[in-house]
Amino acid sequence: MSRDIDVLVLGGAGVDTIVYVPELPLPYADSYMIDSGIRPRAGQTGDFVAAGLSSLGLRTHHVDFLGDDPEGDLVRALHREHGIALTAIPQPAGTKRAVNLVGPDGRRLSLYDTSRAHADDRFPEDTLRTLAAAGRHAHVSITHPCTHALPVLREAGVTLSTDLHNWDGENPYHEPFAYAADVVFLSAAALTDPERTMRRIAERGRAEVVVATAGADGAYLLTDGVITHVPAVAPPAPVVDSNGAGDAFAAAFLFGRLTGEPPHRCALYGAVAGAHACTVPSTETDAIGRDELLERAASFEALKSPKAS
Predict the structure, then answer these.
(1) What sequence ranges are listed for the domain Carbohydrate kinase PfkB (predicted)?
(2) Distance between CA 66 and CA 74 in Å, rounded?
């Protein structure tokens, strides 16, 4: 069977409204003057992963629910501009949206509008089977409809990845994703014992690789039963926004995996792409390209290799 999609991205399409605030947490006040503007832009986790994969030259197809509304139009336009194939399932409740408060140091606080979905939302099975049959790999967002898509994807024979984001290691909602995926990404931010959680994912599920990102502290990689530290890569410009850094890491890691690189090289690619994303304002979409990724990764490795005597 012909597989002309490198990565099928499920879920995570939506619009964020970006507000740059003077500090986080934001102290209570009757009002704040936001000189930089308050701007909606297309791009939630699935959009960012799809854009990152496409920028690295992988044939990418994104499928999710979108409303017939201005927010949905922004998402459709983003995919057109970046040449990303999009299958939009009609969502009468409207396109998903959120508000991101971004502090001067690039940290963010996200407020998600959960009213744009229904408990009975499901991807049409025929559509999902057709797309999965054409794909090599599927990256699954942790939105509700994707839970029910996991068995169909498994039956189609594609490998799976997911990002658990700031999972605390206890919330049962995340477990179907954690235990179904071959590659699991998550943030270490809410974990009291990252190693214990990473090993539990590998022991109870299918994961060959588990990656816990830790911001400026780098990341931790579990593969073949061994956990190693992945050092952070210095950003090529001042850090302005951490929004999308985890998605960039995942996209570059998957690029490495799908092009046959070993896990540690994949993690280096992720670190390079994540550092790049931190230099891009939330109001823009500018994923790192393949040539730039490979060049920066090679430069980092050269700096870390022992000097010849």
Answers:
(1) 49-285
(2) 10
> What's the token pair of residue 138?
């599927």
For residue 166, being part of any structural domain is answered with yes
Residues forming beta bridges with residue 137, ordered by sequence position? 7, 159
Instruction: Specify if 139 maps to a domain.
Output: yes
Interval 230-272: pLDDT, tens: 999 988 888 877 778 999 999 999 999 999 999 999 999 999 9
Residue 31 belongs to a domain:
no
Whether the pLDDT of residue 1 is over 50: the answer is: no
Residues making up the chain, counted from first to last: 309
HSE toward the beta carbon, residue 29, CA cutoff 13 A:
9
- Average pLDDT of the chain is 93
C-alpha atoms less than 13 angstroms from C-alpha of 270 in its C-beta half-sphere: 31
- Distance between CA 30 and CA 13 in Å, rounded? 33
> 3-state class of 48 per DSSP?
helix
User: Hey, what are 146's tokens?
Assistant: 């994707």
Q: How many domains does the chain have?
A: 1
In degrees, rounded to 5, the angle at the alpha carbon of residue 46 between the alpha carbons of residues 18 and 142 is: 105
Q: Report the alpha-carbon distance of residue 28 to residue 8 in Å, rounded.
A: 42
Q: For the domain that residue 289 is a member of, what is the CATH number?
A: 3.40.1190.20
Position with higher pLDDT, 293 vs 300: 293
> Does residue 75 belong to any structural domain of this protein?
yes
Q: How confident is the model at residue 2 (pLDDT cuts 50, 70, 90)?
A: low
